[in-house]
Amino acid sequence: MEDVLELYARPYNPREPVVCLDERPVQLLGDARPGIPARPGRIAREDYEYVRNGTANVFCGVEPLAGRHYAKATHDRSGPQFAEALRDIARRYPHAKTIHLVVDNLSTHCLKSAVRRFGPCRGRALWERFTLHFTPKHGSWLNQAEIEISVYSRQCLRGQRTRDFWTLASRTNAWMLRADAERWRIRWGFSVKKAREKFGYR
Description:
- By secondary structure, the chain is an alpha/beta fold.
- It has one domain: Ribonuclease H-like superfamily/Ribonuclease H (Nucleotidyltransferase, domain 5), CATH 3.30.420.10.
- It is about 40% helix and about 20% strand.
- A five-stranded mixed β-sheet has the order 3-2-1-4-5, sandwiched between helices.
- Helix 2 (about 80-90) packs across helix 3.
């Protein structure tokens, strides 16, 4: 826990950006029957019945101090998809000395995923661009990407059905471009000192 909190307390350094990354499962739901279309004086309405069209996944990443955002819809959250997310993030920081990446302890968050997707040489070279910081067990709330996912879910998914993967991918990309352009930042106030007071240790 303190490793992650000390990382968050560091001043902004473009040569060593701090990026938080997490995944969110998304249910794909189609209409069982047509809804009522919008018209003057009346909003559109969806029928309460729906058809399950499977699931998908969204990777959400944020560089809290710089307000840079990453979001990408994938068919699942497998190791190869995680490796591709690493590649996408690495491309955003071509001049970084290292990229500090905060993730949880999911089994796919490892060198093996990068090697299986890109091969031994490219996979290891990609992995070495990052310095990983894992949140503790039952401590995924320490990952600021969870705040990012909450904002994404409210602004991109709430109030409307996501009928298929391509709709999800399009909405997710549009949301990311807006968030990145407006440079939304996260103010993190939980420090090592507050953690020690909260949990009663020195």
